[in-house]
Amino acid sequence: MPSPNEAACLRACHECAVACLQCATACLREPDPKPMAHCIALDLECADLCQLAVASIARGDEQVTAICTLCAQACSRCAAECGKHDMDHCKRCAEACKRCADACGAMSN
């Protein structure tokens, strides 16, 4: 049974991974996706790290603290990049990333 911090982080990471994948897909569908390349790359990296964090927490891995620290860093970078754009999908992604960075930060303390 996960602790309250673990349960909150599991939810936040899952929601963030989904938001990042949706954002990357929406960016690729923009009329000119080339200017969104950095955003897309950070979305995909963040989604991967969120999914790794979910698996690590669920298994109770020994490296969960390090993984959550890395995930929080990736989420913060992705939130900053998505926050620069006016599209709704980027705004939603930035918010999900901020929540996840906070939840992962709580896991790594």
UniProtKB/TrEMBL annotation:
Pfam families the record matches: Csp
PANTHER family: CYTOPLASMIC PROTEIN (PTHR37310:SF1), CYTOPLASMIC PROTEIN-RELATED (PTHR37310)
Name of the protein this chain belongs to: Four-helix bundle copper-binding protein
InterPro entries: Csp_YhjQ, YHJQ-like
